[in-house]
Amino acid sequence: MNLKKGFIIIIVVASLAIIVLIILCLIEVGSSEILQTRVNNNIISAEYVAMAGAERMYGRLKSLQSSDVTWPQPTLTGAVSTGTLTTGNFTANANTFSSDVFAIVSQGVVNGRAVTVTVKYGYTASSTAPSTLGAGGSISLSGTHGTGNKKSWVHADGPLDSGHGITINDLVQVQGPMNENQTIAMPSFWLYTKFDTTNTGFAYSDGGTGSITRAEALVQNPAMIATFDTNDVNGDGVIDDKDAFYYYYTSYLDQPANNMLGQDLAIGPGDIYYFSGDQNFEPGSIPSGTPIIFVDGNVNILFNSSEWWGAACNNTIIATGTITITQPSNGGNDTLTLVAYGDVITGGEHSFGGVNGNLIVYTNGNFIADYGGKTNGTVLAKGDIIINTQAASGQGENFNRDFKRLHGDWTEPLGLPSGYRVVTIQFIIKDETGATGGSYKPMWQRD
User: Fold this and answer.
1) CA atoms within a 13 Å half-sphere pointing along the CA-CB vector of 153
2) What is d(CA 216, CA 196) in angstroms, rounded to the nearest whole number?
3) Which pLDDT does position 306 carry in this prediction?
4) Residue 42 lies in a domain
């Protein structure tokens, strides 16, 4: 009997021991899981704190004036709090990653757990270059609400500078400043003509009016009235801006001593690159490598003026009339320069071709862009700039229109009139959608 009781006691004690062991194991597992959950929560919180630090560094850079943007940026430290409780602390640094990309590296720490995140942004450094769009008159930018939910946008990099006002609608995105009511200095062609005694000592003076009549020329120097009649291009008895424009290119710039190539440009009357009357240029109609042509009339360009493939090609087209170009396109190392005494008109499909290099435009009239297209470069118009993505009748779907800043450093191309306006472009973080040429979608990475 006593043996039986003793056996039962042993079983009870063993069972209790097993139960205690199970309870201890459960407590250990539970504690480990609680600890692991706490560690995971701290790591997740540290990542959010690190991201908050990166965002604060981004905010600092966005708020700085261009002259204050230096690399690397001073280290930024701070805390992230919820109410009165501090969640964690961060340390953020920013430095350039390449010539047009900077990186923010931020470390967040929560309860001893540290996580580092890196984010890269595209940017344009402070530089001296022409405005993306500049007009002596007004600038008007309009996207289009198409049928259904189809929309076509205008995307433009600043600065936009206007002598009057700038109007945009709800389908326009401008990355950078829009400056209205500016004093927009325009190039003058009189400086290099024989009609201005103020700077060159030639026979005639326009007296600061921008024109001189035949009667005034007779008073100043009757012996040169034949020269006056020759240079009165349109024979209206007045030598004005258009005549000075004509003389600047066909007589002054044409001479080797007066152009950057140091050679006869062959754009004077009778020369190989001088065209009289309206001209139509199709791909390949101007030999590749032709530096400049002059047209005394209107110009219609289909897609581009020359064969752009192969080696880098810089081409300038001058016209006394209006230049119309359908979807300008070129290679990444190419520059197409258009100078018109009349208007410059362009339009095309956003999805076709596009200016991968630069398009540089000066017009003594208006710059008009209809439909879509992709352009890197600069436009300066003495008149107005009018941009509308509305498709012409029968062309179907509307397309976006992108105007992006020049690629590379500003170098004045052959044939651009002296006095072409340049400004200081401030430090700007690029458009972050990644959907358009010249934009840059931020890239986040956790280390």
Assistant:
1) 12
2) 13
3) 54
4) no
Q: What is the mean pLDDT of the chain?
A: 80
What is the per-residue pLDDT for 62? 78
Q: Are residues 73 and 133 in the same domain?
A: no
DSSP 408: S
Structural domain harbouring 263: 128-188+235-426
Report how far residue 340's alpha carbon sits from residue 342's, in angstroms, rounded to the nearest whole number: 5
pLDDT of 305 > 80? The answer is: no
Predicted local distance difference test score (pLDDT) of residue 438:
59
Return the DSSP state at 370: E
Q: Which two tokens mark 273?
A: 């690159």
Residue 252 lies in a domain: yes
Confidence band for 394, pLDDT divided at 50, 70 and 90 = very low
Q: Cβ contacts of residue 435 below 8 Å, gap of 6+? A: none
Rounded to 10 degrees, what is the CA torsion of 77, 83, 87, 92? -20
Amino acid at 390: Q
Question: What is the pTM for the complete model shown?
Answer: 0.69
Residue type at position 53: G
Contact 287, 265 (CB under 8 A): no
**Domain membership flag for residue 210:** no
| pLDDT at 247 exceeding the cut of 80 | yes
Cis peptide before 417 (omega within 30 of 0): no
